[in-house]
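Notebook, p. 212. Picked up where the previous page left off. The plan for this session was modest: take the two constructs that came back from the sequencing core last week, fold each one, and keep the raw output in the notebook itself so nobody has to go hunting through shared drives later. Recording the first one now, exactly as returned: residue sequence, then the structure token string.
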Amino acid sequence: MRGLLGRRRLPPPLPLFPTAKRATQPAMSRILAKINRFLPASRLLRLLLLLAVLSLIPPVFFHFRLRRFHRMREMKCGWIANPPMVCAHGGDSTNAFPNSMEAFQMALDSRVDCIEVDVSRSSDGVLFALHDR
């Protein structure tokens, strides 16, 4: 007999080998019964719900994985948050002669923290920059 709203549900099949009555259901079947109450009846909607839940797993996984990666990096490389001071010895001596105005200007252009200058005084009292005496 068909109802006005759709197909009639069939009763569950009888077991081939009836067993004695159990006092309680196993825990897993009780959990599945509770979950089935909240799921939609349509197979298509169940599939869409399953795909939606599965699509949330990778972002959550990589979020926690990335947090762990950042913690490990901070432990190994603590200086990243507080970097060391960069001091140019004699200016940028790789691109210009050391202790020259060009080397000092190039070092300032490359945004170093400080420039170390070797200053000496001549016998007549004049200051000059020279690496070795």
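Okay, moving on. Second construct, recorded in the same format:
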Amino acid sequence: MDSTETKKLIGARIAIARKANGFNQDQLAEEVGVHKQTISRWESGKRAPNGEEVRLIVETLNCSADFILGLTDTLKIGGGND
């Protein structure tokens, strides 16, 4: 998987987890401490979050980093950070 495909995968996973938690892009941006445009860029695959941003996303959305990073296809909300 190349860099572009990886960014798109991560972006799609962020969008799935965000929606599963009932967040809109503005709300997630506020919680993570970034601009709404940053969330949009992540979700569209134009850029990817850095390690600290992934940690904040995982904490905010209460999902696993493995799901966000595409290491598992199972989204577990509230199950702890695997």
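Notes on construct two before I forget. Residues 68 and 81 are 11 Å apart (CA to CA).
Flagging for discussion at group meeting.
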